[in-house]
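JOB MANIFEST
job_type = single_chain_structure
chain_count = 1
residues = 157
[input]
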Amino acid sequence: MHAMILAAGRGERMRPLSDETPKPLLGDAPFAVINGDIASDFDYARLPRAAGALREAGALAHLVLVPNPPHHPQGDFALRDGKVIELDAQMLTFSGIGLYDPQLFAGIVRGAKAKLAPLLRAAISEGRVSGELHAGRWMDVGTPERLAELDKILSAL
């Protein structure tokens, strides 16, 4: 299994994978993408099993969702029977932990810029995004204030 950790500070969550790596080098297996500005106790060892299920289900992505943090109360997506959906009474936040099938990016022209959210929303509308709820510890540390909060929590341990 391949993995990618997003740690750049350009403000864009994910550009087309072909910006730095030619598509043929990516292969055709699902791969993990984990944002570099999160802290979590999520069990990443579970991802290879989820990658197998992703392929079997014909899904293009598998997203780990979390309860909404105070800075993002509206959430991003919802879960229904293991599928990610756009809207529901119980909205959740995308954790920045996901598995992606390279086919999700097939329509992107090499060298072109593209945002991840529209690609995911299109796949969600086709029912091709699975998901799970992580109810453990998770924190977005993408601002100096939230990073300081994490430092305070860790110092108290």
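[summary]
The first strand starts at residue 2 and ends at 6.
The CA atoms of residues 78 and 91 lie 5 Å apart.
exit_status = 0
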